[in-house]
Amino acid sequence: QVQLVQSGAEVRKPGSSVKVSCQASGGTFRNYPINWVRQAPGQGLEWMGAIIPVFDTTNYNYAQKFQGRVTISTDESTNMAYMELSGLRSEDTAIYYCARESKVTTTFDYWGQGTLVTVSS
Amino acid sequence: QSVLTQPPSVSAAPGQKVTISCSGSSSNIGNNYVSWYQQLPGTAPKLLIYDNDQRPSGIPDRFSGSKSGTSATLAITGLQTGDEADYYCGTWDGSLSDYVVFGGGTKLTVL
User: Do the Cβ atoms of A37 and A107 come closer than 8 Å?
Assistant: First the structure.
């Protein structure tokens, strides 16, 4: 059974950056698109972006809202995925989830447990 | 403001049936598969329905999905108190750079 295990809660000051990790156990990230979704307190789900392996290359797709501030990466040797968000502001306080996209169809079949990022001065 | 529109809340008694709607457009629901996710309080979202009407293994057949045109519906029969959760629809959108879109979520209360 695939499990996605994310890094622990983070507290950052406005203007700084945060890097959240997501490790697959019981499975692999190899050749799977990995997406990142966030949820502000009491709010709904907001898609941030994805890293998409395509044959021998990698594509990236970021939500317009986060263009220039978010970087998604993977390290297949350690089965880790990362999401780095820079220029943090108080509105970025949220739970950040990684989600594996199914190879068979367009859905998010496995989710990490979430990482709370708090941005406060 | 979410791209997909869901009612903020629905409620029903145990044992009853409830439906949750998700309305979109031709660029998203109209031309793509819809998924539904269940988020129990304090937990991560969990896949409930994919490809409009398919259940992953382990999801009871009390949960069903359907799609017609630019709208999708999640139905839950035989409601249980354990079904109290937030439910989100999601799909892909061909017109936006944000190629994954979600509904705003619907809070289900089992009275």
Answer: no
Contacts of B56 in chain A (CB under 8 A): 109
**pLDDT beneath 70, residues of chain A:** none
The verdict on B2 touching A (C-beta cutoff 8 Å) is yes
Contact A111 B100 (CB under 8 A): no
Say if the Cβ atoms of B45 and A45 lie within 8 Å: yes
What's the token pair of residue A111? 């989710």
Does B37 reach chain A within 8 Å, measured CB to CB? yes
Please give the Cα distance from A4 to A108 (Å, whole number).
Answer: 12
Confidence class of residue B97 from pLDDT cuts 50, 70 and 90? low
Query: Across chain A, how many H-helices and E-strands are there?
Result: 0, 11
pLDDT of A7 reads 97
**Dihedral sign (CA B41, B44, B45, B48):** negative
pLDDT at A32: 87
User: Any idea which residue has 């629905």 for tokens?
Assistant: B10
